[in-house]
Amino acid sequence: MKFEVLHRTHYAYASPVRESFNEVRLQAISNEAQTVESFLLKILPPTRLRHFKDFYANCVHHFEIHEPHSMLSVESLLRVVTHPLAPLPLDATPWAMNRLNESLDAERCYEYLQPTRFVDFSPEIWRLAIDAIAGQTDVWQCALSIMHFVHTNLSYDSASTTVHTHMRDVIAQRRGVCQDFAHVMLGMCRSLKIPALYVSGYLATETASATHAWVEVFIPGIGWRGLDPTHNRQPDEMYVKIAVGRDYADVTPVSGTYKGTLERKMTVEVQIKTLW
To answer: Across the chain, which distance is largest between two alpha carbons, in Å?
Structure first.
């Protein structure tokens, strides 16, 4: 599949602000599942862009605006071709849970086994994960069981949380958005010592109007495999990966600081067009 993705973030400030320092994580990566054909990033007011790779190998664009300004627009235009990959069979049992320690030094798994800003694995989370896997002894089967548990026990509610909501609050109220589904699955996987990372990207459906989030788990002998607890499925060629990290805080599309008023209005627009 070939997609064109327009992603626009606009800030309107109640009074002029200054000394704005920003990072943008919107450039997709090229890998075996997708090929980036082009990427264009436009900033208004105009400024110089720099880019670098962060700790998680995401492409990060950095810019600064020192002069007073009353608005900020960040617009990206991405063209990407996705490639269908054979999904891992649902009945596969490639690696026993009791052998996990043999591969935890591979693929930088350590980073994806720790508690983070939005993800925790308290004894209560561990108990929830144990109940969810229902005696499964294989890493892949445990991950599938956790995905199904999260999908079944959380309700999707776009007005129930914010980007700052911790997974503990999501579990308590049993509702959230894709970011929250991913955080809960991360906490449950990590509580069982299954390496799991957060993925930010797009799901190219007819109604897509925002970024999407899902999870990748590390299966020894196979590698990282995606799971989408919001839709209870393995990602396919309809998914476009943008960035990965420990949780949402590592992959925020646009983040930064500035001096000036706290009164502002932010609007985000995502348009996904299927080219073929």
So the answer is: 60
